[in-house]
Design brief:
DNA-binding; repressor (chains A, B); alpha+beta; about 240 residues; WH_DNA-bd_sf (chains A, B); homodimer; Trehalose operon repressor (chains A, B); Chorismate lyase; 8 helices; transcription (chains A, B); 9 strands; Arc Repressor Mutant, subunit A
Chain lengths: ~240, ~240
DNA sequence: CAGTGGTCTAGACCACTAT
DNA sequence: TAGTGGTCTAGACCACTGT
């Protein structure tokens, strides 16, 4: 659809397939604009995506240097669901739905999120098995006035795909907070925690395109299986 | 210098000072371009920065909605140093330099980073005190063929400011990895770990604008004081 | 329908890097 | 000095939102 996105995908593919060698320079923006028969600004939009993703580094007066993509293996940042993440990395996984019912939002949560304490939520608890072991417990709260229900086969797979493709809801952005908390009795009961005293908790508030908050999630990870990787750029001048 | 950056800063200030109310719409891009006497594309670059920072949400056909910035208190992501972070949040802090000497790169690190095992590095160990307690230990390795030495007063303050302002080196990007590891004897000796069995470790590979790797850092955090917040956008279509 | 943001263009000038 | 990326413009057309 978009020219710049297609060009981004094409260049990315060529970098991943080593058609453009690590450390070498990409063709100049002028050359690329002639090759793809588009204006230079359109090329620059494609390059901006490569830059953001850690595929290239630009230098004024010099060119666009191809980075070693293997070095940035699994940049697992951004807003992506468990199902999408596992699928993209081709890791065998299984989801067990422990709970899926309608209830009033818990008091602590209504207070934290500053929403009406009488609002109804769909409360989900799902265990994530990787290589046969339960290493993640996800506790989701979805506002019932936005999402009527989650069919159980959806809960076992991708909720995000269901919301986006079936309900036409567009997920836009999230605030994510990473902390370490003492393991609860529930953590010990549902996960194989061994002697661990703590779990890593990723708390997410997820919003739709129209800025409505529709989901709060606590993803509770066993310490030794938690890993988060991100590619970050330095923002000069604030 | 840049028009779009100045406009970004101006709009951001107005959002932070509630001159544009949360939930309301920003003036249209056309209106803004007339107000600032610039082209629409320049306005769009400014808005792209606001979008990335979680200040607004755009909607085609509608406008740019101002988000509740208080809800995204401390988006502590990106590539920022301890000193910059603490200063920006006005938290009283103190750095104690435990080690600052030239040595050959440790074997495990040369292997991980795939660099010559004979290269020399400046090896730093610094303790970070917050509210009187040592809660973070930073272990830095800076390549000596890029950085000759780190004066001790610099190690106590901002290394990044020294590199950028004194040495003229431009820090560009980093790969950051978050994991939880068992606490070492050294962790227990240097930090107030109490009964903790683990620490959160943030491993960073930091690169310059010319794509040279110049720093590897392990930032070791006490579990109960670790917190990482990020604002993430959903990237539709891969 | 008018107004909004999303994409794209062709051209200009500037700042930086090489040689 | 020639070639690169960085910024900016004025205009065009499209897709989407509201009334």
């Amino acid at each position: 659809m978009n020219k710049f996105f297609d060009i981004y995908m094409d260049l990315r593919k060529k970098i991943e397939h080593a058609e453009f060698a690590t450390g070498s320079l990409l063709p100049s923006e002028k050359t690329l604009s002639e090759h793809y028969h588009v204006s230079r600004e359109t090329i620059r939009k494609a390059l901006a995506l490569l830059l953001e993703g850690g595929y290239i580094q630009k230098k004024q007066g010099k060119g666009s240097i191809v980075l070693d993509i293997r070095r940035f293996n699994f940049p697992v940042s951004g807003l992506i669901s468990f199902k999408e993440l596992q699928d993209s990395q081709q890791i065998p996984n299984e989801t067990i739905v422990i709970k899926n019912k309608l209830e009033t939002i818990p008091d602590f949560l209504a207070e934290d999120l500053k929403v009406d304490p009488n609002r109804k939520v769909i409360s989900l608890i799902r265990l994530r098995k990787i290589a046969g072991e339960v290493v993640i417990m996800d506790k989701d709260y979805l506002f019932n006035d936005i999402i009527e229900q989650i069919p159980s086969d959806v809960a076992e797979n991708s909720i995000y795909a269901y919301l986006e493709n079936e309900l036409g809801l567009n997920i836009a952005y999230a605030k994510k907070e990473f902390v370490v908390e003492p393991a609860t009795r529930e953590d010990h009961k549902l996960m194989n925690l061994k002697d661990d005293t703590h779990v890593v908790v990723v708390k997410s508030e997820v919003y739709l395109e129209d800025t409505r908050l529709f989901q709060y999630t606590e993803s509770r990870h066993r310490l030794d299986r938690f890993r988060f990787v991100e590619f970050a750029r330095r923002k000069h001048s604030l």
